[in-house]
Every structure is written in structure tokens, then in C-alpha cells.
Specification:
The protein is mostly beta strands. It contains no helices and eleven strands. A hairpin with a 6-residue loop joins strand 4 and strand 5.
């Protein structure tokens, strides 16, 4: 059974940066796609970005392109979401999730229903 644990959230001023971690245990992530989703106060959950672990292809929502970057550490079985130039509208609980049957060489966060395993979430608050 794959387990995911997010960390790295916190309070940051607008324009600041945070790096979120999604640490996996129980299975290697080699054949999964890992997605990041967020849910802000009073908002629906939205997809932020994803990485297809075997092809290394990534995808980003328009709202975070150029500001957020995904990376991975195969040895640590961990995926990172580097978030720069943070805005108040980025305030949300951020979740990582794993798709155990990803498309052959790309990932998508258009639908969260593809994702089978979820972490507990980590709060990100962007405020002055």
C-alpha cells in the first residue's frame, strides 16, 4: 500500500517561496504519476501540477506556470513542489496524490478522480 506524506507548508509573505515535499513509502514511485492539488477556503479542489515519474514529463496549471516547479528525488522516493512568487490566492491546503495507472508518457491534473492515493495535506498561507 502506497502512503504519501506532505510537508513544508506554512505562512509566507506575498512574493515569498516555499518548497513542499511529498514523501512516499510502501512502494517505489517509478511507475506512478504524482499530482499536486489544492483547495482554498470556500473553493473547489483544483489541480496544480503533476509529474510522470517514468517519462519525467510535467504539467502545470496556467495559474502557477512560471512560478511553481516540480522535481523528484528517486533515492528518497520524494517529489518536491517549489513555489516561488507566491500570491495570496495561492493560499490553500495542498495535497499530493498518486495515479497508479498513468497515461503512457504524460500526466494530467484535469481530474482528481484519476488519483488513487492521497496525502493528508499541508496548509499554505500567503499573507502579509
Amino acid at each position: 500500500q502506497l502512503q504519501l506524506v506532505e510537508s513544508g507548508g506554512g505562512l509566507v509573505q506575498p512574493g515569498g517561496s516555499l518548497r513542499l515535499s511529498c514523501a512516499a513509502s510502501g512502494r517505489t514511485l517509478d511507475y506512478y504519476a504524482i499530482g499536486w492539488f489544492r483547495q482554498g477556503p470556500g473553493k473547489e479542489r483544483e489541480g496544480v501540477s503533476c509529474i510522470h515519474m517514468s517519462s519525467k514529463n510535467t504539467a502545470y496549471a496556467d495559474s502557477v506556470k512560471g512560478r511553481f516547479t516540480l522535481s523528484r528525488d528517486n533515492i528518497k522516493n520524494t517529489v518536491y513542489l517549489q513555489m516561488n512568487s507566491l500570491k495570496p490566492e495561492d493560499t490553500a491546503v495542498y495535497y499530493c496524490a498518486a495515479d497508479r495507472n498513468p497515461f503512457p508518457d504524460f500526466c494530467t491534473v484535469v481530474s482528481s478522480r484519476r488519483y488513487d492515493y492521497w496525502g493528508q495535506g499541508t496548509q499554505v498561507t500567503v499573507s502579509s
